[in-house]
């Protein structure tokens, strides 16, 4: 078991290393540096061999042409006599490690520094070109020699009377190439080591800003929300640090909101309990309490219990809204019928205060929604419009749609919302008028629940209000739900 765990950790370590940005930068920089160095050796050696052979060929050609010119000057009539040039031919052959052959007009070899083919005939493409007055230089890579064919011309008439064939081995050139290759290999090793060291250093420098991000995030994991991160090393790290700072700001705001929420929940739940305890203690401290007082105090306790129950139910609804989208039960729903049912349930509440509920359906709307959650959102908006309205007021709802969204508007002529409070009304437990909210049984969670439900549908909710003149909530929700 221990060995198995060890192998798993080793495997994960290898995978982590292979995914490392520093390793990839190291490999990229290393390859960019090493590949040209490797190609450099091939280029240098090929160039050296080519230039060395060309240089040798030119030197050999110059001396051979000079020898051929002097041979042509010694021609009597059209008879080629090279008896006076044999020693010079042998010296030239020895100097270049090669072989010189002279062919007359009948293609007969009249001189061979190797002494092998004298008296034989040589008919080749190069010799034929010579008798046409053309020089030729060929290179045989497999046998490692170069060959020159130079015409011998009579000095006066310029008639070709013979051909001088000169061949020279290139082994010395290849030996020089091998020696140069060894020296270049040593240089290559040094350059490759330097490139690898530079790649290692460069990769460390390039990923250094990301270590700062990691350290900052580890600070967050430890429960510490540090200062803003500033990384201006590169454009990418600057963008990353700006995104990090935005995320940190949201986290700080969320942390503050969470602490405030916990404090508000504690306060909201404690208040009814405190009231019930005071009422109960008052009854216990008195003797011979009249039944009427018992009934009055118990009724107050029941109201506090109902209030506590409502707060808990709203909190549970809010928790459900905060769950993952996978908890959403999406299905095609007739929005017109859904809102008509909502109004049917709320009409008795509105009737108690003589408030008129009116629905305007401009178009039939079928949309993909979670019926329960959308009902909760619309119900809260309509119920607030009724609760925070004046006696004998009105609440108008309208439904409309286009090719992409459906729209719900909830409008009332109630007490309105002050401008300073409008940006906070969707916060949990926020109340515009705390005393009035408590009188009508508000928990401060209704609009937070409505906003969460609308956002869960990828929708938008906005408020327009004027104090003393009424409030309008507009809701926009996509017809098709998308994950």
TrEMBL record:
- Keyword Magnesium in the entry? The reply is no
Question: What EC numbers are recorded for this enzyme?
Answer: 2.7.13.3
InterPro entries linked: BphY/WalK/GraS-like, HATPase_C_sf, HATPase_dom, His_kinase_dom, HisK_dim/P_dom, HisK_dim/P_sf, Sig_transdc_His_kin-like_C
Write down what this protein is called: histidine kinase
Which is a Pfam family this sequence falls into?
HisKA
Task: Could you list this entry's UniProt keywords, alphabetically sorted.
Answer: Kinase, Membrane, Phosphoprotein, Transferase, Transmembrane, Transmembrane helix, Two-component regulatory system
Q: Membrane-crossing residues?
A: 21-39, 186-207
Q: Where is the signal peptide?
A: none
